[in-house]
Amino acid sequence: MARLFGTDGVRGLAGSDITAEFAMSLAQGAAIVLGREARREGRRPVAVIARDPRVSGEFITAAVAAGLASSGVDVQDAGVIPTPAAAFLVADLRADFGVMVSASHNPAPDNGIKFFARGGVKLPDSVEDEIERVMGDSPTRAIAGDVGRIRRFADAEDRYKVHLLSTIDVSLKGLHIVLDCAHGAASGISPDAFSDAGASLTVIGNAPDGLNINREVGSTHLEQLQQAVLAAGADLGIAHDGDADRCLAVDAAGNIVDGDQIMAILALSLKQRGMLKDSTLVATVMSNLGLRVAMEEHGIAMVQTKVGDRYVLEALNQYELSLGGEQSGHIIFTDAATTGDGLLTGLQIAAEMVRSGKTLAELAGVMTVYPQVLINVTGVDRLGLAGDTEIDRRAEQIEAELGERGRVLLRPSGTEKIIRVMVEAEEEYRARHAAEELAALIKRRLGE
Question: Could you describe the post-translational modifications of this protein (predicted)?
Answer without folding.
Answer: Activated by phosphorylation.
